[in-house]
Write a structure and sequence with these properties.
single chain, alpha/beta, Glutathione S-transferase Yfyf (Class Pi), Chain A, domain 2, six-stranded antiparallel sheet, six-stranded mixed sheet, 15 strands, DNA replication and repair protein RecF
Length: about 425
């Protein structure tokens, strides 16, 4: 699959934008803050229903506008599909497929992309929520209905926490809070499905991650992924003192009981503490995945280069799973200012690893940061405008080195 045409209306700093695209690699070039990232962010939003830079939708709507619209014409072989999303300041967002209304959560069924960004270093070095989000975004792209399960779980979790806080304020004892049992049943049903889906995904990612890491580093550092489940005693959020830094930090060994049974037992054991704190202490919202290199946690032990390689391997492995399972071909690969963060060897190895994908979109402040095999088509971005698109063989020999100065690297990547 590839994006044949992208249209934006009142999205970020774009009042209007039209960009024709095709298979192969396209590099979006411009100084920081001009709008390169905004273009590729919009494609990623269609696939994940979220931005890799902000948690809410309001920042995606141009100042002074009531709504932003993203339209993408997706092509796969002889088939084309027009995907449209309207982000509203007031009211629910709206979506269309070939001009027919659909639920927004249906979009990831058709638009598949994997985005690499400087923020990905947080997958290895950041908080558990970053790793949970990575897994959940991939789950939704592979099985869109899970987006509804996740939303339902969040609603039940919010209601349960509200009840716990109310009980704490009123000083109710656990045995008098019978309504909590009703919320527990729903929390266990939804949460157990999410836990099982994440466990299956972690197991599937193992071999592709190892292969992708080796392609980038050409060394056997034995990358591993290991689940840390709160229902089995793991405490990813640190309320019970935090997860131990050792590989055994995945909690107590799970029994032969089902996930739902272990979830129920954990809730029962912690009900007193939950009433004291007014918060739900176990469930998929408090789980983590431990990333290991050579048997040691990458967070805290891995070098900067090893951490980057692990993050890239996770993205490459995600792309491989989507490629393997999708009936619409390869996902669109988006590399948002990633090459500026890598040394020359990792740049070249990453370029080689992604060379076989149908469409690759790269953003860069300095064109020299991008490996030559990916510089097939160049699009210049300036102040929210697409000012030029050219094939590399149309450029002067010296044009590539003249595109940007080293000072263009300065600035906040999140400005687009």
């Amino acid at each position: 699959m590839h994006v044949a045409r992208l249209s934006l209306t009142d999205y970020r700093n774009y009042e209007r934008a039209e960009l024709e695209l095709g298979p192969g690699a396209t590099v979006l070039v411009g100084r920081n803050g001009q709008g390169k990232t905004n273009l590729v962010e919009s494609i990623g939003y269609l696939a994940t229903l979220g931005s890799h830079r902000v948690s809410g939708d309001q920042a995606l709507i141009r100042a002074g506008a009531d709504a932003a619209i993203v339209r993408a014409l997706l092509a796969h072989g002889d088939r084309e599909l027009l995907v449209e999303l309207q982000l509203n300041r007031q009211g629910a967002n709206r979506a269309q497929l070939n001009r027919s209304p659909v639920k927004t959560r249906e979009l990831p069924r058709y638009a598949h992309s994997v985005l690499f960004a400087p923020e990905d270093l947080a997958i290895v070095r950041g908080e558990p929520g970053v790793r949970r989000r990575m897994l959940d975004e991939l789950l939704v792209q592979r099985t869109p209905r899970l987006g509804g399960v996740m939303a339902d779980y969040e609603r039940v979790l919010k209601q349960r926490n509200t009840l716990l806080k109310s009980a704490r304020a009123r000083g109710l004892a656990a045995e008098k809070l019978t309504t909590l049992d009703i919320w527990d049943e729903r929390l266990i049903a939804l949460g157990s499905e999410l836990i099982d889906q994440r466990l299956a995904l972690i197991a599937e990612l193992g071999d592709p991650v190892a292969a992708a890491y080796h392609s980038i580093v050409d060394a056997d550092h034995r990358p591993e992924l290991r689940a840390v489940l709160s229902i089995d005693g793991g405490d990813a959020e640190g309320d019970e003192g935090g997860v131990d830094a050792s590989p055994s930090a995945s909690g107590t060994a799970p029994s032969t009981s089902s996930t739902a049974e272990r979830f129920a037992a954990a809730l029962g054991a912690l009900r007193g503490k939950e009433l004291e704190r007014g918060v739900t202490l176990v469930g998929p919202h408090r789980d983590d995945v431990l990333l290991l290199l050579n048997g040691l946690p990458a967070k805290g032990y891995a070098s900067h280069g090893e951490s980057w390689s692990f993050a890239l391997a996770l993205r490459l492995a995600s792309a491989e799973l989507l490629r393997r399972d999708s009936s619409t071909g390869d996902p669109v690969l988006v590399l948002d200012d990633v090459f500026a963060e890598l040394d020359r060897l990792r740049r070249e190895r990453l370029a080689t690893a992604i060379a076989g994908f149908e469409q690759v979109l790269v953003t860069a402040a300095v064109l020299e940061d991008v490996p030559s095999p990916l510089v097939a088509r160049i699009v210049h971005i300036e102040s929210g405008r697409i000012v030029e698109a050219a094939q590399t063989n149309d450029l002067d020999v010296d044009a590539r080195s003249d595109v940007g100065e080293a000072s263009d690297r300065e600035g906040d990547h999140a400005d687009g």
